[in-house]
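Quality-control log, excerpt.
Job 1 of 2 completed; input and output follow.
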Amino acid sequence: MSRPTEQLGDAEIVAASSDDPEAFGELFHRHAPRLHAYIKRRLGRTLADDIVAETFATAFRQRGKFDGRAEFAAWLWGIAGNLIAKHHRQETRMFRAFARTGVDPAEDGIADLVSDRVTATAQGPHLAKALAALSSQDRNALLLLAWGELSYAEIAAVLNLPLGTVKAKIHRARTKLRAALLRENDHG
């Protein structure tokens, strides 16, 4: 007798989905909320909906390529990262608009305002400006940590980089953000 899908590990579900494609839905249930929250902070709600759907559609189509050597979540976030990279220009424009206006385009109402993430409202525009100035790779690593709530090891897997490189990128990004925010506060 086989176990219910909810009791299977991610890799087992991927394997089972070749005979029972509907089993893949459990992976969406497990991973979509966290992935959506991260992408929404990166690109806004509309693109997040599209990117999450496209990420899972791609993962489903390519599930035969998943070999189980990496965690499914890292593989999935890697797919999402590739799709986000396609929208990099949109993200940069969003950060620049936030820096200019002080209005966070990713916020969409009271539900987000009462979420458990800590926001520095007064620093928001300055932070957005500093984020827009980071290199794409440094920003990706930092935002996977801060907004995606991934561990350093998960980020290394997602970005296909050595753990030490990820730690260095995050350290460098934090240093640049701190310096930029200090400069803004000194001038403000």
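Job 2 of 2 completed; input and output follow.
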Amino acid sequence: MNLSLPHRATAPAPPPPTDDAALIEESLADPDRFAGLFDRHADEIHRYAARRLDDVTTADDVTAETFLVAFRKRTRYDLARHDARPWLYGIASNLISGHRRAETRRLKALARQAPERAAGFEERSAERVTADALRPALAAALARLSSAERDLLLLVAWAELTYEEAAEALGIPIGTVRSRLSRTRTKIRRSLESHA
């Protein structure tokens, strides 16, 4: 005797949204769907925060807070923007600004570190062309930038945002991104040349 219950037809799970805007829109009706945005971008935001703060624990906190702020502000998200990364980087950059003094102290300390000297001529020659030899000078140059200049430069260099995405992340016009980045590069170049 077979006493199995008849199977009820269940609706198949909806396919995952193809872009971030759709996911955010779905989260307005079903808040659990917002977890998909976290799954897509948390690792990237965490890597950026960890590089900026040089502290994994603080980067964990910044990442968690970034997504908490994003969740709370999701009703104001512009659904015409299919990629939420610039929005998330903007939130993360604002949170990192709370740690700005520590970042500047860390960069200044790194700038005071002399590069290790290699023993032989071949090693010294190789050392001159490595990034490690430039690290203290670069840290000093970054420490001298304003927070707005440093945010923009690192969003483009480390987070690899386009100019348009950086403008969106920082809430500034694209022309400001271009001119600020040009001035910042000039400052960095002059600073590195003075250390050469």
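Post-run check on job 2. Residues 84 and 144 are 31 Å apart (CA to CA).
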